[in-house]
Amino acid sequence: MSIILSSQVIITSDIEGTISKLEALRTTERFVKIIKEDAFLVEDAKLAIEKAYMASEETSIIILAAKSFSPIVQNKLLKVIEEPPKNKEFIIISPSKSTILATIKSRLPIIVLSEKKEEEPLGLDLKQLSLATVYAFIQTHKRTDAKVMKQLVERISKEAIASQNYDLDETTLTLFSNSFQALDVGSPPPFVLNTLLLKLLARKKR
Length: 206
Prior knowledge:
The protein has about 210 residues and is of the alpha/beta class. It folds into two domains: about 10-110, 3-Layer(aba) Sandwich (Rossmann fold); about 125-200, no CATH class. The protein contains eight helices and seven strands. It has helices at about 15-25, 40-50, 70-80, 100-105, 130-140, 145-165, 170-185, 190-200, and strands at about 10, 30-35, 40, 60-65, 70, 90-95, 110. The strands form two sheets. A five-stranded parallel sheet has the order 2-4-6-1-7, with helices on both faces. The two termini are about 45 Å apart. The mean pLDDT is about 90.
């Protein structure tokens, strides 16, 4: 669903990016933004209500954005959302749909923005794996911790399977899960990566 400049609740983790998209839609509308890094407070709700009752000829888009809106805050906003003053539109932006009260949901359309996070390039071409590229990649990740190494192992396993450049028998596939277990019990991450890539290289189709 696409966002528009009318009263709604937008569920998104990218609050700043969503506000930028809304601003890009602006023509003659006046924007009033109350943005909180964490929780939206009762005093913020009072300010929003004050802004709503300020007379203006042009349409005012009142954007209320925060990581969380408590039930008290939402109940305080309910009346002005139910009966907004002339030329006033309310857009609530929050990452969590579950925290929005049913009374708000029944009065405002809910727009859930799906966000695909773009992964950083792996930095290793598994279609062209060689001793040189394995060595360079291991050098790059000499100080990578176990948590990040687990993510790397997962990416490598997915990309190796997708590339279809390897003879991945059951033993080789077990190697991926063994790498996770090795990291869990405290094996040095560079050693685990080295073992995984060298064994993978040995299974590369000629």
